[in-house]
Specification:
This protein is of the alpha/beta class. The chain has 4 helices and 15 strands.
């Protein structure tokens, strides 16, 4: 079983460059994306535990309610059943919607007004180190390759190869520059 503290520390490292208690409180009190992510991780952890043992269901419900409270407050809708690896970074809050059928690898950056939606039984897959620009939309069972950049307001309806930049509606390749310049403090 994954230790929730380790996952939160890895998320914190993406924001602060360290996982100290001082960094935690600074980020928790000043960065809405980190605060939401903290409660998301707690809810996800207790959801997994309650599925194994029903005695943990009240704790899951408590953390789920806190996560939803901050979700409404900050305009973030990421269900606790969504699979997000450690090192997730919410750059700016508001208007973020992610389908529960999404799989997100480590060190992914997401900006404001990003939507990742799936259709029917499709799963959207975001590989390691991807940068999702403001207003970008990913629709359907799309696979985004490692270190790809999805430009601002791009609409992605087809798979994106690793290490390239796409933009436009529908998104097309505009550059061979990867996202490493946007990914601070990878874990």
């Amino acid at each position: 079983m994954v230790n929730v503290k380790d996952v939160i520390d890895q998320d914190l490292f993406r924001y602060a460059g360290n996982a100290s208690l001082k960094a935690f409180w600074k980020c928790y009190l000043t960065i809405p994306g980190f605060k939401y992510l903290y409660w998301y991780r707690k809810a996800q952890h207790w959801q997994t535990r309650s599925q194994r043992n029903g005695l943990y269901k009240p704790l899951f419900v408590f953390f789920e309610l806190l996560m939803r409270h901050y979700g409404y407050k900050y305009g973030i809708d990421i269900p606790s059943s969504t699979s997000i690896a450690p090192g997730f970074y919410i750059g700016h809050f508001s208007g973020i919607v992610i389908s529960p059928r999404t799989i997100i690898a480590k060190n992914v950056n997401i900006s404001q007004c990003v939507t990742i939606g799936s259709t029917n039984m499709d799963f959207a897959t975001i590989e390691e180190g991807v940068y999702l620009g403001p207003g970008s939309k990913i629709v359907g069972g799309v696979h985004i390759g490692a270190y790809a950049v999805i430009g601002a307001n791009a609409v992605v309806v087809k798979d994106v190869p690793a290490g390239i930049t796409v933009a436009g509606v529908p998104a097309v390749q505009i550059s061979i520059k990867d996202s490493r310049r946007f990914i601070q403090n990878p874990v």
